[in-house]
Specification:
The protein contains six helices and no strands. By secondary structure, it is mostly helical. It has one domain: Orthogonal Bundle (Arp2/3 complex 21 kDa subunit ARPC3), CATH 1.10.1760.
């Protein structure tokens, strides 16, 4: 029995196209963010998370997960960092953020929206990365001295990104 070429044709759905579009926008923001100089290594604004927040609000957690994970993998391929410590740090942060967003998306919408989701996800992202650094790269309690700096950055950038996402969601029907 031989396989014909029609046996390997994919039939993407409209949702697949939407995930691809949103992941492409998130990847574009990742590339833009890489051009922004950072005064503190490891501290980035997380612009691509704006897209994840919008997708979460509009299409749900499942689609936000696809967008976020595709961005991490495609970004690492684009920057040549697949399977490097940077890739695993990004993946750990994204997975922790997604787990927290899954729980946070079930909280009352009148009290928890894009801004609170963004701040919570930013803290989860930092927590995931710090945990991986401690377990894998630097198993020393000294890394805890960086926690206030990273927490302040998470609060600042989480708030700003959440406000941008909230503004966009309010403008679009």
């Amino acid at each position: 029995m031989t396989a014909s070429t029609t046996d390997f044709i994919l039939h993407p759905s409209a949702e697949d196209h939407q995930v691809a579009r949103m992941a492409a926008v998130a990847l574009g923001l990742t590339v833009l963010e890489s051009a922004i100089p950072s005064p503190i290594p490891g501290v980035k604004p997380g612009l691509a998370n704006i897209v994840t927040l919008i997708v979460l609000a509009r299409y749900g957690w499942r689609m936000a997960t696809w967008v976020s994970l595709l961005r991490v993998v495609a970004g690492s391929l684009l920057f040549g960092s697949l399977l490097t410590p940077g890739f695993f740090l990004s993946l750990a942060g994204a997975l922790c953020s997604l787990v927290l967003l899954a729980a946070a998306s079930r909280l009352p919408a009148r009290w928890f929206g894009p801004v609170s989701h963004s701040v919570l996800a930013a803290f989860a992202h930092i927590a995931g990365q710090m945990a991986l650094v401690f377990v894998w790269l630097i198993p020393h309690a000294g890394i805890l001295y960086l926690l206030p700096l990273f927490a302040a950055a998470a609060l600042l950038f989480g708030t700003v990104n959440g406000l941008i996402a909230a503004h966009y969601l309010a403008q679009q029907p």
